[in-house]
Design brief:
Distance between the termini: 11 Å
Helix content: 10-25%
Largest sheet: 7 strands, antiparallel
Order of helices and strands: EEEEEHEEEEEEHEHE
Number of strands: 13
Shape: globular
Number of domains: 2
Radius of gyration: 18 Å
Length: 185
Amino acid sequence: MKYVLLENFEIINDDADFCIGRVQPMNGREGPFRVLASVTADDDCGRIEVATVNSLDECVSTLAGYYENNPPRWFRKNASWYVKETLYSSLRVEQDQEGRWRVYRDDFPLLERQGCPATFFRLEEAQRIADIHLLDSYPNTEPAVTDGYWWLNDPELDWRLQPECVEGRAHWKPLASLWRPTSSQ
């Protein structure tokens, strides 16, 4: 995954075109800088202060280290609805009226062999399969397994295929960046 710190002080996951943190300069562009994480288990809590650092490069590596040490986790919204905010997208597991669990990534359902929405008898199994398939179809990733499950295709998943996004990014002036190997979040 490539982390990029932009001029507006947002830190994004470049592969997912997703804001995962923010930097607050405490004394202009010379630092120090407060590093804030945006991806939290409880989406209602907003940002979490991770650290105060002295350089823009430290901002990016500090946020990457924070997420490596504090990976996203499942959060219970109610008895039949669980969510996991990740560095790529939002996963959701919901129980239907028949008691089976269905899995979604950014509102797109997980499908099984025949192209029907996948259902699971146990919550833990639904969450496990969602975690395994989180990165499927993202740029710079390979499917984790070939077990007959896949996501209904999100046409906006890869910003590189959208001319308006490519054009907009041509004007970006990153302040810092960092590449880390991709792992399932």
